[in-house]
């Protein structure tokens, strides 16, 4: 899709001047980002940089400490609980451990959200589930038990389940983690293909530079408590910023600290452990 055409409409997800964190701890501040229909957007950053925290902000699991997060034009912090439930129905979230129900077969796992949230007929359920299983290449695995499928297949079943209600926005938490190089490429192309086919938007939280740069329209990079870079993959690839270079080139030495920073809470804990007040 042409990036300019996608941006002529309102964003599906919008963070404006957002700070996010837990209690009085701020993980990220001054976050401005926008996700449009038809786009694949990659949120990248080192371990502990706040990527999952961003995702929790988008789903309204945590509220912004400052600024505003809107999904489908509605502020997730002020919408009613019923409104938030409806917003979440328009989002598909694929968690890293896309926990499947082990007592149900592949078909029933994917059918589950349809049975929970719609009143469509049994024959429509069959067609809809087979269509989504087909999209992830597992139509002929519909009858298998969860114990009979591989880890990579289980992820694809979880993906089929996440898209069965045809969400407008799909949020993926580390979709490439632990995959072999072939599955990695297949998963990346699957995400791109589903985004185009469903004309939805996909947001990926990922460390994987090569795969996400290959399919993303827009990349946001977080670190040091803020947004470090935003742009097309080709723009970021040309950056000479030392943080971005260290991340993209996978260098062990550079501005990204390996050690989690010492906080007052840690020092207090350590003092207690060592028998000091
Ligand atoms: N529920 C929580 N309560 C308090 N602090 C939290 C909570 N969840 C995460 N954090 C802190 O927020 C910071 C960002 O964590 P987050 O999980 O968003 O990072 P991430 O970029 O997704 O990391 P990774 O790539 O390692 O999964 C970390 O310092 C973490 O300790």
UniProtKB/TrEMBL annotation:
Residues 13-249 form the ABC transporter domain. Gene3D superfamilies: P-loop containing nucleotide triphosphate hydrolases. InterPro entries: AAA+_ATPase, ABC_transporter-like_ATP-bd, ABC_transporter-like_CS, P-loop_NTPase. Keywords: ATP-binding, Cell membrane, Membrane, Nucleotide-binding, Transport. GO terms for molecular function: ATP binding; ATP hydrolysis activity. It comes from the Bacteria. This is Phospholipid/cholesterol/gamma-HCH transport system ATP-binding protein. It comes from Pusillimonas noertemannii. The lineage of its organism: Bacteria, Pseudomonadati, Pseudomonadota, Betaproteobacteria, Burkholderiales.
